């Protein structure tokens, strides 16, 4: 796979995961890997948006993360929302599925991939946010940008990010289905994109903000921000992290 990383770009290509130094981050990782936190547990604090496409339906200065899925299983989405409640001091809202037509407008039939940066720009125009809100779009599909064979995701500072799940499935590489592995990979990727959306750049530590060329890079990293990125995030978004 080709890779490239331009820190000045509006669109920050996805990395993977990080070594968690704090006691809380180690607990999160342990629960993810052990399966103690199950996909079929629903968070009692999970907000659900009924207003649909184009309206985050949130007002005020509270940190808010709105998850918009595209053809993604509801159980997996609830797992991600549940983990966000453990990591962030934020209201987590799970929207209904985004219209597939919006995604298909940016689908390259020859490559059978979605042009990620163009989709990101289109979604930014349709899904407005306040300074304390972030949007996370999770798509059951494959994305790319010019110059790269694929990306796990893209992000825009001050808005949010888009994550593609296709290459996170073990089956994509000829492996057996593994629910725990899938959810850990996805958790790493969404944390990475949200980190970019709050102003974090790629990190050289064994950190969730480290760039990933492949799923092997994703698997080799732990599932949280490193101490340096935690300090930066505490300045960029005071009070966001539950540590």
UniProtKB/TrEMBL annotation:
Keyword annotations: Hydrolase, Metal-binding, Metalloprotease, Protease, Zinc
Protein's recorded name: Archaemetzincin
Highest taxon in the source lineage: Archaea
Alphabetical GO biological process terms: proteolysis
CDD domains listed in its UniProt record: Peptidase_M54 (cd11375)
GO MF term set: metallopeptidase activity; zinc ion binding
InterPro entries per the UniProt record, alphabetical: MetalloPept_cat_dom_sf, Pept_M54_archaemetzincn, Pept_M54_archaemetzncn_arc/bac
